[in-house]
Amino acid sequence: MSEELNISARTVVSTNGAPKAIGPYSQGIRAGGLLFTAGQIALYPESQQLVVGGIAEQATQVFANLKAILEAGGSSFSQVLKATVYLKNFDDFAAMNAIYAEHLGAGGTPPPARTTVEVARLPKDALVEIDLIAQITAE
């Protein structure tokens, strides 16, 4: 028996706690009981400027941005089902993974499914970009 996912009703998620979209997209979209975040790079929400520092500083800001979008959309890190990580340099994997583990799969929560790829370039020459799919905990 299969069940169809009705995504005809979509709600835009927007928060001042994460950077404004730098293109024609939404910070997040709620649909069918799920929250889809836009890819987040390490921009400060207030200034839209890239975090100075290496992969640890950038990954920390990326997770702060994602947390704000998840909360604005009625979800949390514990409800994340899928993560996609884009790295400018795969040599940064271990450092990114340490920050990732503090947020996703922490405290005994099952870690989400994940894809991690190395890419040639990210917006604003960021070192990492991450997007998430999460269940919505509050309707």
How would you describe this protein?
It is a single chain. The protein is an alpha+beta fold. It contains 2 helices and 6 strands. It has helices at residues 55-72, 93-103; strands spanning 10-13, 28-31, 34-37, 80-87, 113-118, 128-135. It has a 6-stranded mixed β-sheet, covered by helices on one side. Helix 1 (55-72) packs parallel to helix 2. The longest helix is centred in the middle third of the chain and has 18 residues, at 55-72. The chain is globular, with a radius of gyration of 15 Å.
Question: What keyword list fits this structure?
Answer:
139 residues; alpha+beta; six-stranded mixed sheet
How would you concisely characterize the structure shown here?
By secondary structure, this protein is α+β, with helices and mostly antiparallel strands. 21% of the residues lie in helices and 24% in strands.
